[in-house]
Amino acid sequence: MLTGALAVVFDTTIVNIALETLGRQLRVPVSTVQWITTGYLLALGMAVPTTNWLTGRFGGKKVWLAALALFLAGSVGASLAPDATTLIVCRVVQGAGGGLMLPVMQTLLVQAANGRSLGRATAVIALPALLGPVLGPVLGGLIVQHLTWRWIFWVNVPFCLAGLALAWRFMPSGERDRDAALDWIGLALLCPGIAAIIFGLSRVGAGGGFGHAEVLLPLVAGATLVACFAVRALRTDGTPLVDVRLLGNSSFSAASALMFLSGFVLYGAMLLIPLYFQQVGGRDALTAGILLAPQGIGVLLSRGPAGTLTDRLGARPVTAVGLAVTALGTLPFAWAGPGIETWWLVAALVVRGIGLGAVTIPIMTSAYEGLARDRVPHASVITRTLQQIGGSFGTAVLAVVLNSELARHPGGPPDAAAAFGHTFWWSVGFTVLALAVSAWLPSRLTRRATGR
């Protein structure tokens, strides 16, 4: 499953690096190019809530194979696209497949763990999500610099083919409920609601902030639809599309809040760091992507120990230490000036990666702690959605802050360094806020006391 999932997480970050190249070679304006990303994200967001019903009705293996085949078809279509319109349509197909794959992977691996060694199980689940934003820009930079844009999508094909073969051979068929009923009203409320929120957040940069109609209207409409879904899900006698009553569990609600904030901590800063190396350090896009690689090394160093320590000590202490280390690794960027040595920032990225690797795993473990098997798919949908929206929200907020600071510091690299420094302090602040919320995660002692 990891083989197929890597195609999804790499694809998103690789395409982001190549947007300028795509616009230039396809001869389309920025407003059209943005839909290559926006269309993908909207399809992904709308697909996620359906995974609970699909896995119940058809079984996890069939849904996984179908989703991976859909992503493969979208990748091949995108690589052969003759124009921007066809490329956008193929990206929507990719997004639908990717939106199904990631929560299905979470659900099946947690259910396979069956409550045992959840920390080590979630260490496996978290690997693609942690490595994608770090290694994707490196791969994207290499492709943009040395190959044609079509290879951005061809690179997915080997991962998809290998993933299909491995899943067909080794995955069990999984449990099925042939009588599972689809919550059509919930589907009509939740999927457009999530899509509207993501669309509004994607327009923050183009609109110049949160106060414009093209941002506010979809955000308000989306929030209203999601709120209506939540009220109906709480009152219905049947099985809702997503069981929001899980949020009444203190451990799960704390983990959900932290999944939202982790989107700020991971994806928000991943917007800033490559831009810092380019605008302050004077590096090209490929070099900036390569300089991000040490963060991936840090993630790999801490991923295994974080899973083991979570099983032994509980989620709270591991998360708190991980967030503190992440903040420590971000501080050099907040203090850095244009003359700072690159090796110092590279070392900071290793530290930051160690912290990130130790954060996501205990949070996800806490989200699944003590859940009955049939509630795991609902938990996967909620946590996946909150992380995605948190990432979009964090990126939008930091983009607005950075643009504001750059407008106040319109000079050369020294002024740009000051603007980035102030913006990185916001990233540190979000990390500290997440550290405060982590106090509500369960400790090992709490789990024993409650008999879970």
Explain the overall architecture.
- InterPro entries: EmrB-like, MFS, MFS_dom, MFS_trans_sf.
- The chain crosses the membrane at residues 32-51, 63-80, 86-109, 121-145, 151-170, 182-203, 215-234, 246-273, 313-336, 342-364, 385-404, 424-442.
- The protein is an all-alpha fold and 452 residues long.
- The protein has three domains: 1-171, MFS general substrate transporter like domains (Growth Hormone, Chain: A, Up-down Bundle), CATH 1.20.1250.20; 183-240; 243-442, Growth Hormone, Chain: A (Up-down Bundle), CATH 1.20.1250.
- Helix content is 81%, strand content 0%.
- It contains 19 helices and no strands.
- It is globular.
Summary of the model, kept short:
By secondary structure, the protein is mainly α. The protein contains 19 helices and no strands.
| Number of separate strands | 0
**Roughly how many Å is the radius of gyration?**
21 Å
- Tell the overall outline: globular
Distance between the termini: 29 Å
Rounded average pLDDT = 85
Order of helices and strands: HHHHHHHHHHHHHHHHHHH
Number of helices: 19
Helix content: over 70%
Low-confidence stretches: 445-452
- CATH class of the largest domain reads Mainly Alpha
CATH topology-level name of the largest domain: Growth Hormone, Chain: A
State the CATH architecture of the largest domain.
Up-down Bundle
Beta strand %: under 5%
**What does the main sheet amount to?**
none
GO molecular function: transmembrane transporter activity
Subcellular location: Cell membrane
Protein name: DHA2 family efflux MFS transporter permease subunit
GO cellular component, one term: plasma membrane
